[in-house]
Amino acid sequence: MKHIFLLEDDETLGRGIAMALTGPEVSVACRSTLAKAREALAEERFDLLILDVNLPDGSGLDLLRQVRSEGDATPVILLTANDLELDEVTGLEAGADDYITKPFSLAVLRARVNAQLRRSAPKASQTLTVGPFAFDFEQMDFRRDGRVVELSKTEQKLLRVLVENRGRAVSRATLVDRVWTDGAEFVEENALSVTVKRLRSKLEADPSKPDYLKTVYGIGYTWAVKP
């Protein structure tokens, strides 16, 4: 269920917006003043804020600035009768994600709302399960048999290249080029060997007899595919 907060001083318009947005997976909480809005936001978390700019007791911009100053990244759509370019720029620079001028189509508002909810939706897990390992390179979460394994950034890069090419030999030159991509003109000759050794010590049951991160003599390394 997605929870939307609407701050609109025109209560008739507010009810119309709420009816247009409410559905089986969406609820809308409405307030008509800045003071009531602050109370509501202090009590509950929302997935999207829709804020009218011109209010009887202040400006929705002030609430937007407050939300952003507290480190809250909740998507915000501003509603306003001001259609000057400067007003839109001011709103966006204050941290708004979208800006809609009145009058507007409820269908357009629904589309804008749905776009913001899609963008803010948590991404599906990218965990890759390989034998006893579970690797999530986006969240930098690496586990063996459920236990967290701490890897350096360089180790993560090397592991990713090998795992994404598992079952295939990757040359030393390719690995150096893919892992050390910071523009360094010189990489120590044994840097790759040292990183491989560290990875094995963290991932292999017996680093001296690796089951997964294997050396392909004369070529480079491979992440072996186990039967």
Primary descriptors:
39% helix, 227 residues, Arc Repressor Mutant, subunit A, alpha/beta, 23% strand, 4-stranded antiparallel β-sheet, 5-stranded parallel β-sheet, elongated, 2 domains, Rossmann fold, 8 helices
How would you sum up this structure, described in words?
Helix 6 crosses helix 8 (191-203). This protein is elongated. 39% of the residues lie in helices and 23% in strands. It has helices at 11-21, 34-43, 60-69, 85-93, 106-120, 153-164, 172-179, 191-203, and strands spanning 2-7, 26-31, 48-52, 54-55, 58-59, 76-80, 98-101, 128-130, 133-136, 141-144, 147-148, 170-171, 213-216, 220-223. The protein folds into two domains: 2-120, Response regulator (Rossmann fold); 128-223, Winged helix-like DNA-binding domain superfamily/Winged helix DNA-binding domain (Arc Repressor Mutant, subunit A). The model has no long low-confidence stretch (mean pLDDT 89). Strands 2-1-3-6-7 form a five-stranded parallel sheet, with helices on both faces. Strands 8-9-10-11 form a four-stranded antiparallel sheet, with no helix packed on it. A three-stranded antiparallel sheet has the order 12-14-13. It is α/β, with parallel strands linked by helices. The protein has eight helices and 14 strands. The two termini are 42 Å apart.
